[in-house]
From TrEMBL:
SUPFAM superfamilies: WD40 repeat-like. Pfam families: WD40 (PF00400). GO terms for biological process: protein exit from endoplasmic reticulum. This is TCPR2 protein. GO terms for cellular component: cytoplasm.
Length: 212
């Protein structure tokens, strides 16, 4: 019996003007007018997260049709990577050009969910631009990579408000991609791809030849 082909769904792609219009194109800082560039993007079913060159994270809630803003205290620097996660709570991790990493635990109107915005900072292990972030499915682990090849593991206890971070791997070239599942971290750098087994602290390279 011939299999039935799945129906083809046509979608129209267009600029998200409702989102872009909620983000300023310029800001005034003293006597200077600074152009705002959009530097990072991530999406899921609940949110659209946009990082900017002025250190501001713009978070658009799809259900409520609302835009909220989050930033780092102190130095205004470009956001280089954002990563959303929806588990029991909604989380967003943000990395910057100087190596700062922060996690925002978002407020939810649902019963039993988080009612107060909280922020967790990854203590200054990274010293250069963040190039990749990866969550564990339950939101208790965050991995961050930078353009000097450092990979940091952060263990989050959302109930206690604790974030403990440590350097777990250091590669000779920039990290370009991270993905985590079932105690295995997939790491891609400019030179190679490898599997890092977090329990055994062992590395298994994918392929034998370095990238050109």
């Amino acid at each position: 019996m011939a299999s039935v082909a799945s129906p083809v769904i046509f979608k129209e792609f267009c600029p998200l003007y409702y989102l872009l219009n909620a983000i300023p194109t310029k800001i005034q800082k003293g006597f200077r007018s600074i152009v705002v560039y959009l530097t990072a993007l991530d999406t899921n079913g609940e949110y659209i997260a946009v990082g900017s060159s002025i250190g501001m994270l713009y978070l658009y809630c799809r259900q409520l049709n609302q835009m909220k803003k989050y930033n780092f205290e102190g130095k205004c620097e470009s956001i280089t990577f954002v990563k959303l996660l929806s588990c029991f709570d909604d989380l967003v991790a943000v990395g910057t050009a100087s190596g700062r990493v922060a996690v925002f635990q978002l407020v939810s109107s649902l019963p039993g969910r988080n009612k107060q915005l909280r922020r967790f900072d990854v203590a200054g292990i990274h010293k250069s631009s963040i190039t990749a972030l990866a969550w564990s499915p339950n939101g208790m682990k965050l991995f961050s990579g930078d353009d000097k090849g450092k990979i940091v593991y952060s263990a989050l206890d959302l109930d206690q408000g604790i974030c403990n971070s440590s350097l777990v791997l250091e590669e000779p070239s920039s990290i370009v991609q991270l993905d985590y599942n079932q105690k295995v971290l997939l790491v891609s750098t400019l030179q190679r791809t490898l599997l890092f087994y977090t329990e055994e602290k062992s590395v298994n390279q994918v392929g034998t030849q370095p990238r050109k």
